[in-house]
Amino acid sequence: MALKKMTASLLVLLLFMTSFGGILASAASPTTTGLNLPLVKTYKAGEVLNFTVVFSENVNVTGGTPSLNLDIGGMMREAAYVYVSGPSKYLQFSYTVQPGDNDADGIQVAGPIQLNGASITNSTTAEDADLGNGYGPGGATVLDTSIKIDTVIPSIVSVSYPPDKTYTAGESLLFTVEFSENIIVNTRYGKPYLSLNIGGTEVRAEAAVYASIGANQIGFQYTVEAGLEDLDGITIDNEVKMYGGVIEDAAHNLINLVFPNGTATHLSGVQISAGGDAFVTEIPADGYYKEGDVLNFAFLYPADVTVTEEPYLPLFFGTTETPTEHQAKVAEVTGNKVVFQYIVQSGNEALNGIRVGNAIQLNGGSINDSNGLTPMPTIVHKLALADVRVDAVLPKVQHFYKNPINQNYVTGESLEYRARFTEPVKVSGAPSLSLMSGGRSVAQAVYVPDVPGLEPTDLVFRYTVQDTDKDVIIDAVGQLDSTNGSIVDYGGNASEANVTYTQFVQVLLNAATPTITLVEMPAAKTYDEGDELLFKVHFSEVVRARISPAILPVMIGSNTVDAIYAGGTRTKILTFKYVVKASDLGANAITIGSALLPNGGSLIGKDGDGLQADLTLNNVGSTSGIIIGQAAPQALNVSITGTAQVGSALTGSYTYYDVNSDEEGLSLFKWYRSDDALGAGKTAIPEATSTAYTLQAADFGKYMSFEVTPIAKTGATTGAAAESALTAAVTQVNVPSQPIFSNPIFTTTSVDVLVNGKAESAGTATTSTVNGQTVLTVTIDQKKLEDKLSAEGSGATVIIPVKADYDIVVGELNGQMIQNMENRQAVLEVRTNLAAYTIPAQQINIGSISDQIGTSIALKDIKVQIEIAEPAADEIKVVQNAADKGSFTIVAPPIEFRVKAIYEGKTIIVSKFNVYVERTIAIPSEIDPKKITTGVVAEADGSVRHVPTKIVEIDGKNYAKVNSLTNSPYLIIWHPIEFSDAANHWAKEAVNDMGSRMVIDGKGDGSFHPESDITRAEFVSILVRGLGLKPENEAAPFTDVKASDWYNGAINTAYSYHLINGFKDGSFRPNAGITREEAMVIIAKAMKITGLNANPEGQSIDKILSPYTDAAKASTWAQSGIADSIQTGIVTGKDGTILAPKDYITRAEVAVIVKRLLQKSDLI
């Protein structure tokens, strides 16, 4: 301490003498004359330090609370004044020791009394006391090194155990427990002890004093009792037990008696024997033992022995957790010596050494003395022979990694194959690896020594391409060849020659590019609508279409059309077909383009394993004589004008069109009357055969239509009949027209809105016509809706039902209403006769809309419209063209679903959602639900893509439930597909279903190749299509995926939805195979998009994977995804117990797991 230390506990009386007349007089002010300190000892937390300050005369304390400053271990504390009644010469101060106070050098009273606002005065004259004199000759600072503070709870820092050996009766086991500071042991009322478990018997090692025990240690001793035995090693409990004794430090702090590791300790080397053991005199020498080698163990007994039957010595190979037992049989008995012998068998393995069992097993026999009467001891005491290793397992190649990529290698370039063996291996000489092509060896990759960074189990083999390698395909690896060297394990076993691995990625050596050598044209003749134009394209070698077949561009007149691939894969000749359409008629001649178009795929040489073909069309045949027939005339824009009232005249009008410019002849006209607006009971009116018709009484209440059959004077004379739309119901004079709604839901402008099925007149309907389409808008009253939602609480469903037929139905709310619904987790539904649109308010994301419009704009001023619309005429034409091109049938008319926000002319389109949003589309009653395959999105460019769709029955009527993450026009289609090579395949149902849903593609020739491996790009594309995700055509963030690649959109979409990550080098490797574990990880990520709960019971990954015998082969990073895929039943493994995580997944397996994903997510 900085202050000078001095001895305290002194009461110093200071007498003040005056020199006036030599008379002894009292000073005017009282002074401090001494300080009584606390009792000398070590104090612990909670104990009180008492101090007494002595004054020269009685004093009074008034006002605040005086205190003494204490220095405790360098920390300042205060001892507070303890009030007493009346004047006194002795003032008491006290301080209670707090946890954390510690002072091993002794406490100090630092400085004089602190008044803290109080007054200390003479009890008679009220003069203030003089406190500056301190407490005697030592001044104001007092130190006592004998008064110490200790609030630290001592603990056990280490435990030492008896040496490893086998102990017998009478021997002592000594334990030493060391504490964090010096301790005091009181055994007056009992001895502390350690609890030991010896062969199931609890015994005590009691506190004892023996040599080398320090002041901070306690010794414990147990003397082995007769009859006890524990050959697996004793167990010691995790704490010192007091048993009436006391262990504390100098401050009497009781000690934490739990061992540092907190658990019981098994001392496997401290063994207890009941005595009478066999004495081992010979064990095998250290080293490796292979198949046929001999392990001998010799035992000496106290006397000569006889052996009967077949006793054996247990030997344990393998790990401690899962050892396998083997038997060393008696091989020799000579006098008192018995030799047990084991001959190593094929498959035996103990690379970390062997262990000997703890007793000879008599196995129905005996080991007795020479008279055959007295049994000899059989206890052995397990021997762990770590350096006696058994290796009778041949090393073999487990798998290859970092193989050559799929490309063409030219002379001088090298192929490297890295082989991982089942155990560490050593190489001598130059062994090699056969490289295969079509089942025959075509080259040898030679071992490369001293490659840095390899594991002991790994070898590298390299082949450098030679000039003689012409157009060679390497499609597999064959056997290891030890002609020029050897590969052995550390036990000397030669590696197996056979390699079962077949590489997926095939490589080329000095490959030639396939070219087109001839194009055969269709036969010279006239082709009419429905006729086929067949083109045969000849290649220089066998080719195969990959991913998507190419197309042949054909110019018919001024229009370019696509002749699609029609067969011939794995041959030199590919056939392309185009079916003549009505729109083609009238063209006199055809020509073809300069090259085939890839159409998102490629044509690969060498039966699909070589280079991409050059698609330039060479040696094109003549088109002379190929003529497209004449087109029939058309009647366009057929309509009716006039008033639908009995007695009034109706006029039918139309536009005559003939692509060949043939003049109109005598076209035919008909008028029809129908019973309702849907055309039921349609009947021709016999006498109505001109463009004009006067309505008769029989027409009252009927719906009229006009039909034209166009006829040309020359050429193809008769066209298809075309009919107008139906009129409104015919009325009579002075009879009011029919109401707008055939089944009205409101009388004037009021519309009922359903909140949790309860009607509330909260809507106002208005009608209009926009671009020739009728529009009904239902505007919701904010207050009425709020009141109803408040009454219903969270999670309400608000339905706007419209039963009348309009082209467009709009439900309109304001942004504040949407926000309030979002806060209440409400769902909004607009329902018409044709469809229903169900959307959680949260998915409209009014917050994002507000950010785009301007956060200063009040939400109530933003209109939010939810629309169900029939597409306009031009959009319907696009859809019909898509159906024609895609060879599917539309079974329910297209419906468009839109969400938009409007503020002062600015419109924000909500087109993308975070979860699947449901649309329900009514199926016409005449449609067989078994002839519906799926719903599709109709894009503006005429393309279509699958969206998850399931057919449901509600109140006896069929509906298609479409779930999508985007807004678009949707149509329901019939698109049956059956692949020829899946007819007898185990995955037939899934393959055909996914093909019919446009999720998977075939190979263009009616086949699917279900057992072929699939590329990473193909897998991602199928999953994206299956989920109904819209391709995002921005450049994907991978170095080996170009914006022009057919798979770019799918890969970019999968990346944006966090389905894929790629590799650390920034690549995606789109054309490489995808393993089962990689596929399962991606499927598990897809479950998050579909909302499928992968593990509702919260089982551990280990438990889920435990039924599979090869689960350990799964990569650590993949285990969670594999577990999720298995737990949901999307993946079931192979043969019930095999995951095969490193196997490449097949096309059939992909079809099955994608279908299961959609089914278990309730999307199909």
UniProtKB/TrEMBL annotation:
Signal sequence range: 1-21
Pfam families: IG_AIR9, SLH
Keyword Signal: yes
Limits of the SLH domain: 974-1033, 1034-1097, 1105-1164
Domain of life of the organism encoding this protein: Bacteria
UniProt entry keywords in alphabetical sequence: Signal
InterPro entries referenced in this protein's UniProt entry, alphabetically: AIR9-like_A9 (IPR056284), Cell_Envelope_Struct_Comp (IPR051465), SLH_dom (IPR001119)
Protein name: SLH domain-containing protein
Species per Swiss-Prot/TrEMBL record: Paenibacillus oryzae
Taxon lineage: Bacteria, Bacillati, Bacillota, Bacilli, Bacillales
